[in-house]
Amino acid sequence: MNLSIGFGFGCSIVFVLFMLEIENLASIEKAAETFTQHISNRTVFAFRGKMGVGKTTFIKAVCKVLGVSETVNSPSFAIINEYVSDTTGETIYHFDFYRINSVREAMNIGAEDYFNSGSLCFIEWPEKVEPLLPAGTVWVDMEERERGKRIINYVIKTATTH
After folding, report:
1. What is the reported pTM?
2. CATH assignment of 22-146, among 3.40.350.10, 3.40.50.300, 3.40.50.200, 3.40.50.20
């Protein structure tokens, strides 16, 4: 679905809603491939969804598609895990803010520096640090449906000139 908003002066913003369906674990890598095609120059991705919906599992699949060969684990206790793509050399940060009790705690570990580093940042439980997230953060909503199917929705904003 596309929604265009014009601003005059030959510029408009286009919102594109993407929906991915993951029928089962066997289809997760295909969904991750589709997702990575939309990353472009975007770097901060905020994953929302209930506990157990598969945020970490999907991020693992995305990291694999991006060329990370090392084991991708949930950073539940470490808060931040750092990976490097074997294919591009790009650094990828994976955050899990579930155990963070305040925005101040996130600031103390330098979360804003990571978010503004230009490196890919995949964030679980972003609601806890929302005031720190930069403009342009892509919100990724995940939900579980019948028979274990997962739905992933995200909106990409792009500015165009005429």
Report:
1. 0.87
2. 3.40.50.300
